Amino acid sequence: MIKLDISKALVSAEKVASFESKVTEAQQALENGTCAGNDFVGWLHLPSSISAEFMTELQECAQTLRENCDTVVVAGIGGSYLGARAVIEALSNSFQWLTNNGENPTILFAGNNIGEDYLYELTEYLKGKKFGVLNISKSGTTTETALAFRLLKKQCEEQRGKEMAKKVIVAITDAKKGAARTCADKEGYTSFVIPDNVGGRFSVLTPVGLLPIAIAGFDIAKLVKGAADMELATAANIPFNENICAQYAAVRNALYQEGKKIEIMVNFQPKLHFMNEWWKQLYGESEGKDGKGIFTAAVDFSTDLHSMGQWIQEGERTIFETVVSIEEPEHKLLFPNDEENLDGLNFLAGKRVDEVNKMAELGTQLAHVDGGVPNMRLIVPRLDEYNLGQMIYFFEKACGISGLVLGVNPFNQPGVEAYKKNMFALLGKPGYEKETEAIKARLNG
Ligand code: PA5
């Protein structure tokens, strides 16, 4: 099982213990469905409730796309994209995942920006490809995703024919409402439902994440098993001191109270870059509201030790770090000997590259703690489906608890609407006439 080390969190045991009652209360409220946002806690017992039949249905759909596509484009944004990308990148060969190796389709992501060049270059890249599309949107009305889907649907139908397009376009959306649902029903696409009670950023263990991950060739049963084991290991009956979700939630809130307003998620494996991104959204969107919340930042080490390392070591002391530490890499590579030894590094010859990386990790931890940066470590035995499943559930549950302890509703995101309202007013969307007039007057005034 993955472990949490809080011994260098620079917060006293008494302070952490002082959060026990609040954390227990929050976890109980999650369990009883009495917490703020209680209509969005469907993720809590999701891993243990996914049936074997449902997994088979997902696998069969994944197989259809694997057999008929060399490339699959996942259209989605925020919670409808980051989890799938995080897991796929964490498990893929760093250099082969964008180039189809003949075994698994290449997975590409779109619908997560409005970059004209990005979309143009994507459509160019897809010319001549046997591609399929996953249209993922809970609301079914998100502009970024809808734009990409329009382009992809048209190109897929033109390139592959209407009949094949029907086979290789899949919708993952609400059971009844939204344009993605209407379109899927009208066109006869295979579709999967995002449960009403699971919000976007908590949806990676629904078809939102599971289908793309299965299409990429990874074992979703192991991923779900890892999550289910973590669900058990952090259940409400597990004592506070042994429950890593409770501990993480308590330490974060304790540090926040002591003026640590920024949490930096750290990895020492470049493959975890998108796990950082997924975590950033999960915690940032869940807690940043009502004028409160830890700002979530992320770095890839040792790369960013040569950029943000200076700030972390000596900048404003408002930060703490959470390091995801992978104990054992998947491959073995030794530091080479060099006869001339011009760089003076022969003292490392014969050592595993990972040993050097681990010493960079330890050295960084000691330096940052010396510099007044509290440090937590999530210790993960290996980067595989089972451990990623554990990590996903660990972060989700700790996030729910942490947000409730902070005193916010962790399951809504009212602030996301502000930019959309302005954008639609600026673009003159029908129904927004009043807002358009107001925003124009403001800009001219
Ligand atoms: O966590 C969330 O709810 C959001 O990040 C959504 O996932 C994101 O805005 C995309 O929404 P939708 O799935 O409705 O297109």
Structure description:
It is a single chain. This protein is an alpha/beta fold. The chain folds into 2 domains: 3-36 and 226-405, Glucose-6-phosphate isomerase like protein, domain 1 (Rossmann fold, 3-Layer(aba) Sandwich), CATH 3.40.50.10490; 46-223, Rossmann fold (3-Layer(aba) Sandwich). 48% of the residues lie in helices and 14% in strands. The protein has a 5-stranded mixed β-sheet with strand order 1-10-9-7-8, sandwiched between helices. Strands 3-2-4-5-6 form a 5-stranded parallel β-sheet, with helices on both faces. Helix 5 (82-91) links the parallel strand 2 and strand 3. Helix 7 crosses helix 8, helix 11 (220-233) crosses helix 16 and helix 13 runs parallel beside helix 16 (385-406). The mean pLDDT is 97. The structure holds 5-phosphoarabinonic acid. 5-phosphoarabinonic acid (PA5) binds next to loops. 5-phosphoarabinonic acid (PA5) binds at residues 77-80, 137-139, 142, 145, 199-201, 285, 413.
